[in-house]
């Protein structure tokens, strides 16, 4: 990780500087984004190479983007969630930073409560509008870094801000210079980059930022924001929707050091996690997400998913506590009243539950056959089976084994007379018209009756 006190010089790759264009009318890419139809995915069939950074990390926006999709957390709840983030990411800072709003007394109290914990990671950073007076809030809170909203597509520049590109870029640069003047590291959020005129606006802006950074000897970070979830991971897809080409071009032609580049995506097209991982693989060091994926509209990349993907890609789980994922999910359900879908990966009540008898039969023989990994060891979530008319004797045997059997009786044979009697009872329930699954309490009662040796 490049420290704030160690700014290394870099050079732009040998391509002439991109020229900022400012047409009188916005370029809305209507061939790709017809609006009245599903957006098109264009291909130029040019591929760029994998180029992963030496180190990848996760950043968090649970307390910024995440709070735009649900009732605000109290400062005390923020402190608990921040604690989960620290424990999951460990002391080496796999979950490196967490960004906060700064505008209200409640926001500032939440920051104070998190600071009191004394954690190095996640580092607390700010988020502000591209408004000069907002820097006073950053300075008052004593933060070393803040995100700055620098919308980059014509949809935002022309239609929302009512400016042209030159006006918007000059305004952004003025704000960035204000941050540099007081020693604050600016993190420029290139909002809606996947609908931007990449060579006519996004790239020239980034090149200007990198030159400012070199002059000031302060790193300027770039967050590439797939605000509407349009990004695609497909090799050969075209800019501005190609995640590989966005990352590759920002590094190779924009001059952005990999450790200063971050990806922020949304899940409008079910691609948020794969796009974040793709950004890692093509050179982007940081992937931004939220706990449970809460975020504007369809949400952001789920932190728990990013953490598992980090381990899968890096092969390194040292210092990380994946069991905290389960603890965090329980807090959301029990304390915050969040209903996590039963099939939600890693956290849903049935994410590692089988209802099929043929699957249960395989699990009885070897758990690896139908479980994604040792969910008990990694997530503190033993494999489960739900009893229905499809479970068969194998499902009942597995349920009893996982809930009651220990030691030499760890695996009860599905041909055990007691298992067969429980199966007959279950079968009779559905013959009589039952349509719901059998509850754990009902199976427990039957097990006590027909398998007394196991209690």
What this model shows, in words?
The chain is an alpha/beta fold. The protein folds into 2 domains: 57-334, Alpha-Beta Barrel (TIM Barrel), CATH 3.20.20; 353-454, no CATH class. Helix content is 37%, strand content 11%. The chain is built from 15 helices and 11 strands. It has helices at 75-89, 105-115, 135-141, 154-157, 165-181, 198-216, 243-252, 272-281, 303-314, 323-334, 357-365, 375-379, 392-403, 417-431, 440-450; strands at 57-60, 95-100, 123-128, 145-149, 185-190, 221-226, 261-265, 286-290, 301-302, 353-354, 384-385. It has an 8-stranded parallel barrel, surrounded by 6 helices. Helix 7 links the parallel strand 6 and strand 7 (261-265). Helix 14 packs across helix 15 (440-450). The longest helix is centred in the middle third of the chain and has 19 residues, at 198-216. The N and C termini lie far apart (55 Å). Mean pLDDT is 89; it is low at 1-14.
Secondary structure: elements and pairs:
Layout (H helix, E strand, L loop, with lengths): L56 E4 L14 H15 L5 E6 L4 H11 L7 E6 L6 H7 L3 E5 L4 H4 L7 H17 L3 E6 L7 H19 L4 E6 L16 H10 L8 E5 L6 H10 L4 E5 L10 E2 H12 L8 H12 L18 E2 L2 H9 L9 H5 L4 E2 L6 H12 L13 H15 L8 H11 L5
Parallel strand pairs: 1-2, 1-8, 2-3, 3-4, 4-5, 5-6, 6-7, 7-8, 8-9, 10-11
Helix pairs in contact: 1-2, 1-10, 5-6, 11-13, 13-14, 14-15
């Amino acid at each position: 990780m490049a420290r704030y006190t160690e700014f290394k010089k870099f050079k732009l790759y040998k391509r002439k500087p991109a020229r900022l264009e400012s047409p009188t009318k916005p370029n809305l890419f209507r061939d790709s984004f017809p609006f009245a139809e599903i957006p098109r995915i264009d291909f130029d069939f040019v591929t760029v190479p994998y180029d992963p950074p030496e180190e990848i990390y996760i950043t968090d926006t649970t307390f910024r983007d995440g709070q735009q999709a649900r009732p605000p957390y109290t400062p005390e709840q923020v402190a608990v969630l921040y604690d989960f983030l620290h424990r999951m990411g460990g002391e080496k800072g796999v979950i490196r930073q967490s960004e906060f709003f700064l505008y209200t007394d409640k926001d500032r109290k939440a920051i104070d409560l998190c600071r009191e914990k004394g954690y190095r990671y996640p580092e607390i950073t700010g988020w502000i509008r591209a408004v000069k007076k907002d820097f006073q809030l950053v300075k008052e809170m004593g933060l070393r870094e803040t995100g700055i909203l620098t919308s980059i597509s014509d949809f935002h520049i022309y239609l929302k801000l009512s400016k042209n590109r030159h006006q918007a870029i000059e305004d952004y640069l003025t704000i960035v210079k204000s941050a540099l003047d007081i020693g604050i590291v600016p993190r420029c959020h290139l909002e809606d980059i996947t609908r931007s005129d990449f060579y006519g606006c996004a790239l020239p802006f980034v090149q200007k930022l990198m030159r400012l950074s070199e002059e000031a000897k302060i790193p300027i970070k770039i967050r590439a924001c797939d605000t509407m979830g349009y990004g695609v991971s497909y090799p050969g897809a075209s800019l501005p929707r190609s995640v590989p080409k966005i990352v590759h071009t920002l590094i190779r032609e924009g001059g952005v050091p990999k450790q200063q580049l971050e990806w922020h995506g949304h899940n409008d097209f079910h691609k948020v996690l794969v796009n974040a991982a793709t950004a890692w693989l093509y050179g982007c060091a940081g992937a931004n997400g939220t706990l449970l994926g809460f975020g504007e509209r369809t949400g952001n990349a789920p932190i728990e998913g990013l953490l598992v993907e980090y381990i899968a890609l890096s092969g390194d789980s040292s210092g990380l506590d994946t069991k905290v994922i389960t603890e965090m999910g329980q807090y959301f359900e029990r304390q915050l009243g969040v209903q996590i879908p039963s099939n939600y990966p890693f956290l849903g009540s049935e994410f590692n539950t089988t209802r099929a008898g043929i699957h249960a039969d395989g699990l009885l023989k070897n758990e690896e056959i139908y479980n994604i990994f040792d969910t008990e060891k990694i997530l503190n979530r033993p494999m489960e089976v739900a009893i229905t008319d499809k479970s068969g004797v194998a499902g009942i045997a597995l349920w009893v084994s996982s809930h009651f059997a220990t030691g030499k009786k760890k695996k009860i044979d599905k041909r055990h007379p007691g298992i067969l009697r429980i199966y007959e009872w279950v079968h009779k329930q559905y013959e009589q018209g039952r349509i719901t699954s059998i509850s754990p309490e009902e199976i427990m009662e039957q097990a006590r009756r027909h398998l007394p040796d196991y209690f």
